[in-house]
Every structure is written in structure tokens, then in C-alpha cells.
Amino acid sequence: MTAATKPHRQSYKPSKRDQWRTPRTFVAGVERRWQLILDAAACAESTVAPRYIDHELDALRCDWQAPKIAPGYLEVAAEHGGGVRVGGPAAVWCNPPFSQALAFVTASRKWSSRLQRPVLMLGPASVGTFWWSYAFVLAAEVWFVDLRLQFEPPPGIRKSSNTAGSTLFVFMPNGSPIVGHRLCGMLGRDGLPVDPSLRHKWIGGE
């Protein structure tokens, strides 16, 4: 059995280091293009979508069609400038534990096909690793984040600077690129493309 076929046997067991949350400002930019309907690696306090899968449900083992519902999510998201984009293509968000990146790449690709929806996976820009190369091959789009994202720490953890860049992978049901080349470009900390022409397409939903 190869390394690429093993992740489905793993379990989602986050450590404190893995529980840092995606900046809301970045998510708000992503929501200019997509309607995030599910967060596949979250908790009630950190989810960026109305429905979420936490470590108890375990996204590496459970059915992504039976998630938990986050009470009061829309009200909280609105306070941070986010929320569900009305009319945008529905998509799944996933900012998984970086220690289990390979397993979540496999799960994201699988559930994109089963749900027939894009799965957006945010991970470190670990270009020299096997899991990153594997994600690059499977993803329809690959976006580098121009500046290092400042992730939000879980309760009880002191905030510190992010020491690595990030990559947003877009897994599509058919696996084919939908915006030009597989390597699409750069996103800013606001979650929008740095290139003005790509930003126009992003916001316009093309």
C-alpha cells in the first residue's frame, strides 16, 4: 500500500498547535466568490460556515453529508465582515490540522466528487513535501497567499507570528482546471486575487 492510499485509515486528532483558526478577513474575500456551506475541520467557535465537522465526528471517517449545525453562525460571521454569499457557487471549506495534510488532501478530493461541489483546502506552502505535490496534481486550482496569514489562536494560547506561507487548493468534482492554468496566481490577506484582472473574475463569479 502506498503513502497516498493510507490517509483514509487515520483519525482526526488535533493538537493545540493544529487548532489555530483562519483569519476572518481572508475568509470574507473567499466568500466573494463562493458560498461556504460546510467547514470540514472546525469546531462551533471556529467554523467559517453554518455547518461543520469537528474532531468528534472526524472528517477522515465520517459522512460529510451529516455535519453539525453551528447555532448563531450568521450573526457572528456578519460581525467579522463575513457570511454566506447569496447566489454564489456552494463550496466546502477545509483548513485542516497541518500535521494531517496528506490525509485531508485525499478526503477533500474524495468528497468533492461525492458531493459534486468544490472543496477549498487551505494549507502551508510546503512545496518540497510529498503531500503538497500530491495536492498540486489533484487540485483544479492552486493559489499562493501573497503574505503570511496571521492565524487566530485558540483560547488560552498566546498569539504569535506565522512563520510559513499558505496555499489554497481548489478540488473540483471533475478534477479539471476552471480558471486558466492549474497554478492560478496569488491571493492577498484579504482573500482576493492580487492580479486586478483575476480579482474581477473572482468577484464576478467566473
| Basic shape | globular
Secondary-structure element pattern, one letter each: HEEEHEHEHEEEH
Radius of gyration: 16 Å
**Helical amount among residues, as a percent range?**
10-25%
Count of helical segments? 5
Number of strands: 8
The strand line-up of the biggest sheet is 1-4-5-7-6-8
Name the descriptors:
206 residues; 8 strands; disordered N terminus; globular; two-stranded antiparallel sheet; alpha/beta
Description:
The protein is an alpha/beta fold and 206 residues long. It has helices at 24-30, 73-79, 101-115, 130-138, 196-204, and strands at 35-39, 51-52, 68-69, 90-94, 119-124, 141-145, 166-171, 183-187. The strands form two sheets. Strands 1-4-5-7-6-8 form a six-stranded mixed beta sheet, with helices on one face. Helix 3 (101-115) runs parallel beside helix 4 (130-138). It is globular and about 40 Å long. Mean pLDDT is 79; it is low at 1-9.
What's the topology here?
Blueprint: H1 24-30, E1 35-39, E2 51-52, E3 68-69, H2 73-79, E4 90-94, H3 101-115, E5 119-124, H4 130-138, E6 141-145, E7 166-171, E8 183-187, H5 196-204
Parallel strand pairs: 1-4, 4-5, 6-8
Antiparallel strand pairs: 2-3, 5-7, 6-7
Helix pairs in contact: 3-4
